[in-house]
Amino acid sequence: MVLYPARFKRAKQEQPNMVFKWRTEIEEAQAQQHDLQLEKKNLEEHHYATISLVTPIRRLLDEILGTVLLFIIPGVFKWEDL
User: Organism's domain of life (predicted)?
Assistant: First the structure.
């Protein structure tokens, strides 16, 4: 029969609880990592869609783009309000 000091007995009894605690912490971290990877993918797709919308506008002449913006944002160039 092997005799263990009291602290070893306590550690041996607490060991399954510690393993369960670590396992749940690891699973939570993996779930959070998965969520962050999904969010990164969604942001990359949104970024690509936004860039593809802006690209054709860059090909417009400055005069045409200015005229379009005047119709879209009519109150920007009201100098009387200043």
Answer: Eukaryota
At a CB cut-off of 8 Å and minimum separation 6, what does 68 contact?
A: 60
For residues 43 and 50, what is the distance between their CA atoms, to the nearest angstrom? 10
Q: What are phi and psi of 39, to 5 degrees?
A: -65, -40
Q: What tens digit of pLDDT does each residue of 10-22 get?
A: 666 667 777 778 8
Q: What one-character DSSP code corresponds to residue 5?
A: -
Query: What pLDDT digit, counting tens, does each position of 53-62 carry?
Result: 877 777 888 8
Whole-model pTM: value is 0.49
- Rounded Cα distance, 48 and 55, in Å: 11
